[in-house]
Amino acid sequence: MTAGLYLFTNRYQSYIVKGRSMEPTLSSGTRMLVRNLSRPTWADIERGDIVTYLREESDEATTLGRVVAGPGDSVEIAKGILRVNGAEVSEPYRKPVASEAPESEMRLRDNVQPLVVPPESVYILGDNREESSDARVWGPTPLSRVTGKHVLTWYSPGGAGR
């Protein structure tokens, strides 16, 4: 029993969502189980996975986001529309924008020039693009900075969850 508990607690961890960057999928206060990834590779992660990761400037602040592209993928965002390898990505999980702003008022981060995700890196975005500071600001994330992968949501104040 003790060995099983030890293995479970070293392999998984509870995570409490803070902030609105992953709404409507995960709202602030949501509690979820994350599988720890000590040396992740692209084989451990798929497009669409929700992951925890460390930003380059901090080894302590864990951030949460959705992987939308992997190593070698071409990524572009034009007028808020995500394209990976030239194909528009369906994002049913994405929080709808209240109203589409005229092109002259669109923010810079609603448009990302085409880029190729470097080897051993992933492109991570928040589901709530209006509230998320993500790859549009920080660029691709090295896989070595990915710390965990969402397994399940066990409590959600708003009843949402993946």
* Beta-strand content estimate: 35-45%
Largest sheet: 7 strands, antiparallel
How much helical structure, as a percent, in the residues?
under 10%
- List the secondary-structure elements in sequence, H or E: HEEEEEEEEEHEE
- What class would the helix/strand composition place it in? mainly beta
| Arithmetic mean of pLDDT | 85
Radius of gyration from CA coordinates: 16 Å
CATH architecture: Ribbon
Placed side by side, the strands forming the largest sheet appear as 1-2-11-3-4-9-10
Number of strands: 11
Number of domains: 1
CATH topology: Umud Fragment, subunit A
**Highest CATH level, the class:** Mainly Beta
- Name given to the CATH homologous superfamily: Umud Fragment, subunit A
Q: What is the number of helices?
A: 2
For the termini, the CA-CA separation is 30 Å
Task: Please tell me what the overall shape is.
Answer: globular
Q: Poorly predicted ranges (pLDDT <50, ≥5 residues)? A: none
Question: Could you name the key traits of this structure?
Answer:
162 residues, mainly beta, Umud Fragment, subunit A, 7-stranded antiparallel sheet, 4-stranded antiparallel sheet, 2 helices, 35% strand, globular
